[in-house]
Design brief:
The protein is of the alpha/beta class. 33% of the residues lie in helices and 22% in strands. The chain has one domain: Alpha-Beta Barrel (TIM Barrel), CATH 3.20.20. Helix 1 packs parallel to helix 7 and helix 3 runs parallel beside helix 4. The longest helix has 11 residues. It is globular. The N and C termini lie close together (11 Å). The relative contact order is 0.15.
Length: 198
């Protein structure tokens, strides 16, 4: 069975970094978009410095200027950009060509037709979700039409992620609120999430 990658998103402090280091997550997400999990460039840089080298640092953006994303990639604060807004295909291509780095494009999907439309994106990897950080699952059967790698997001937690992986066979899974308690990352939940997958 292929390894399922794990992205833990919404890191906000050094404790969060120590948690993802301890469980050897594959990706860690810093949210630069306006959000309760938003971090500054300075904090992201400090967290990046303390993160294990084999964890890919992902910057999460919503309709950010492409040059700003390029700047953060070129400073190596992040290694991958994840776009959650209405970014045009030429903007995605610009970021890829300018930096040579991977771009993830997030899509809210509710029907098989929306999944089909997402498949044409020039992004390197798709993230399929029920909504921007809604924390709710969706009908995974609509993903049967996918023929390219994707990250599954939306309402995943230690209790349902194993079923999600078995049913959907994603390239990876993305979790944020599902491993939190009172709005903060919970190491016990992160450990259980990883155990449920691996």
């Amino acid at each position: 069975m292929n390894k399922v990658r794990v992205k833990i998103c919404g890191l906000r402090c050094m404790d969060d970094v120590s948690y993802v280091n301890a469980v050897a997550a594959d990706y860690a997400g810093f949210v630069f978009a306006e959000s309760k999990r938003q971090v500054s460039e300075k904090l992201a840089e400090e967290m990046a410095y303390c993160m294990n080298l084999d964890i890919c640092r992902v910057g999460v953006f919503v309709d950010e200027r492409p040059d700003r994303i390029v700047e953060l990639l070129e400073k190596n604060i992040i290694q991958t950009a994840q776009l959650h807004g209405k970014e045009a295909e030429d903007e995605i291509c610009y970021i890829k060509q300018k930096t040579g780095r991977q771009v993830i494009k997030a899509f809210q999907v509710h029907t098989a037709k929306e999944v089909q439309q997402a498949l044409s994106s020039p992004a390197d990897l798709l993230l399929l979700d029920s909504g921007k950080g809604s924390g709710e699952t969706f009908d995974w059967s609509i993903l049967d039409v996918t023929d390219r790698p994707f990250l599954l997001a939306g309402g995943l937690d230690p209790h349902n992620v194993s079923r999600a992986v078995t049913q959907v066979h994603p390239y990876g899974v993305d979790v944020s609120s599902g491993v939190e308690t009172n709005g903060r990352k919970d190491f016990y939940k992160i450990q259980n999430f990883m155990r449920a997958i691996r």
